[in-house]
Amino acid sequence: MRDRIVKFEKFLKENDAKRQRANIKAQAERKLRDLKELEVKSLQDQVKDEQVASDKVFAILKDYQSYEAYLRHVVDNLPPDYLESAEPNVNDILARHQTLTETAQGLKDTTKITSAEIVRLQEQLSEMAKERNNQLLVYNSQLGSRQQQLEDLKLHVTLLEAKAEEIDKRGIWKMTVLTQTKLAIDNLYTRIKTKQNEKDDPGLREKLSVLLERILDLSDIAKEAAILVANEKAAR
Q1: Of the four listed, 108, 116, 205, 214, which is most buried by Cβ atoms within 10 Å?
Q2: What is the pTM for the complete model shown?
Q3: What is the rounded distance in angstroms from the CA atom of residue 232 to the CA atom of residue 236?
């Protein structure tokens, strides 16, 4: 009985170990199954997405069939030497279109750059025109001031010329008076002086001295005559 019990316990232990291993394996199998189910679901979703994308592609291809037919018609009716290829096809047309598109884009970029440069130059031109107008205003103001100064100078010159002319006239008049005075002095001197006492060329001071002396003599004679006349009147 003891041997049987030992064998039975050993049997139970082995069964428990098998059961535990089976449970662990079952859990692993369930996890693996869950992962596979998730993977299958993901693949199914991916298949659906691919199917949708495929349907879109087929729809696009269907839509593009008309364009393809048009391009084939264009290829069939191309003029000679239009393309470098001896036997042009749709791909050559598409390549030419790509080249033209890139060229057009390059031209657009160049146009944008040129337009920006034109705008910059226009702004610079506007600034230069504004600065030039300001300079013109300054120059016009300076010119007006210079013209006023010129008019003032002209008026001053006219006044100076008038004064100079007046001075010339006065000088001529003074010279005439001086000449006439000298002639009168010479005439009086000639009348006063006798030929015996007359010098060859007496000076003006000497002539005036002689005239003064003669005038004083005449003044004394006039005084004496006045006294005589007064005495005669008193005697009467």
Answers
A1: 214
A2: 0.30
A3: 6
